Amino acid sequence: MRSVFVYPHLDQVGTVAVLDALSPGQNAPWLVEGVLYCWLESEDEYLYQGWEPDGVEHLTVTIGHRPDWAIEIEVSGRVDGTEQLRRLVLTLLEHGGVVTDDYSDHAWTAGEIRSHARHEGLTFFDFRGSYNRLI
């Protein structure tokens, strides 16, 4: 599984309502577009488990505080999932916020995702570019 963490400016209730509308009758996880598995993660559970301290610090500085919840979205390795993920993330960031992915320490904004901005040579959720760096 490949994953991203979305830190929307929309509150938890509003974010859950968006996910409920996109995945009627199914939550924990929400299944969106048949390929995206979404969970509400809180800091007291697993939100920063496995994170490097520098990554948490960078996120905290970027947002202005350490978020105590996020939406984790996992994409199965059996599908590309890029377009579905972009649509969902842009929906969740409609009111602002950032998203982090498995491939960089950058906190991506909706504007950066829409414009295909690059950070250290990678775009948002650039698993192909990351893989190509390894070979």
Query: Widest sheet: strand order?
Result: 2-3-4-1-5
Radius of gyration: 14 Å
Got a strand count?
5
Main beta-sheet annotation: 5 strands, antiparallel
Number of domains: 1
Distance from N terminus to C terminus (CA atoms, Å) equals 20 Å
Percent range for helical residues? 25-40%
Number of helices: 5
Order of helices and strands: EHEEHEHEHH
Q: DSSP strand (E) fraction?
A: 15-25%
Average pLDDT rating: 92
Backbone shape: globular
Broad structural category = alpha+beta
Ranges with pLDDT <50 over ≥5 residues?
none
Structure overview:
This protein is α+β, with helices and mostly antiparallel strands and 135 residues long. The chain has one domain. The chain contains five helices and five strands. The chain has helices spanning 12-22, 53-63, 82-92, 110-114, 127-134; strands at residues 2-8, 30-32, 36-42, 69-75, 97-101. The protein has a five-stranded antiparallel β-sheet with strand order 2-3-4-1-5, with helices on one face. The longest helix is centred in the N-terminal third of the chain and has 11 residues, at 12-22. The radius of gyration is 14 Å and the shape is globular. The two termini are 20 Å apart. 27% of the residues are buried. It comes from Amycolatopsis azurea DSM 43854. This is DUF3168 domain-containing protein.
